[in-house]
Amino acid sequence: MTAVKKYGIEQLMNVVLAPVVSEKSTFVADRNRQYVFRVADRATKPEIKAAVELMFKTKVDSVTVSNVKGKPRRFGRVMGRRRNWKKAYVRLAAGQEINFAATE
User: Fold this and answer.
1) Predicted local confidence at residue 98, as pLDDT
2) pLDDT higher than 60, residue 103
3) pLDDT tens digits for 37-93?
4) How far apart, in whole angstroms, are the C-alpha atoms of residue 73 and residue 42?
5) Is residue 102, in this structure, part of any structural domain at all?
6) Within a domain: residue 100?
7) How far apart are the C-alpha atoms of 82 and 33, rounded to whole Å?
8) Domain encompassing residue 57
9) CB 86 within 8 A of CB 43
10) What is the 3-state secondary structure (H, E, C) of the chain?
């Protein structure tokens, strides 16, 4: 059974939210063939792998997931926090790459 049949295209298109563009993520991309994405909080590793393969038409080797805690912030006089979110490090197979500048 393919991942598209198992999860459905609509569900997979809601898994990857945005690429994380930072100094650390570009360093990791150049060094380890890994790309960093902000993903849905309830997403699993197989869902993230299937979503990246579907959206970018690449072959994914592995997925590593990290939960990022929201920072405490002040909103006027009230102390609050930013939301917690999930970050995924996606390692592509050899010879594969993702070009974010290309549009279809």
Assistant:
1) 87
2) no
3) 999 999 999 999 999 999 999 999 999 999 999 999 999 999 999 999 999 999 999
4) 24
5) no
6) no
7) 30
8) 3-69+80-92
9) yes
10) CCHHHHHCHHHHHCCEEEECCCHHHHHHHHHHCEEEEEECCCCCHHHHHHHHHHHHCCCEEEEEEEEECCCEEEECCEEEECCCEEEEEEEECCCCCCCCCCCC
Question: Which residue, chain included where needed, has tokens 């009230």?
Answer: 78
**Residue 101 resides in a domain:** no
AA letter at 12: L
CB neighbours of 20 closer than 8 A, spacing ≥ 6? Answer: 36, 37, 38, 87
From CA 84, how far away is CA 58, in angstroms rounded? 29
Residue with the larger pLDDT of the pair 101 and 77: 77
The pLDDT, as a whole number, for residue 80 is 95
Give the distance, in angstroms, between the CA of residue 10 and the centroid of all CA atoms in the same chain: 17
Query: Residue 1 corresponds to which amino acid?
Result: M
**Local confidence band at 102 (pLDDT 50, 70, 90 cut-offs):** low
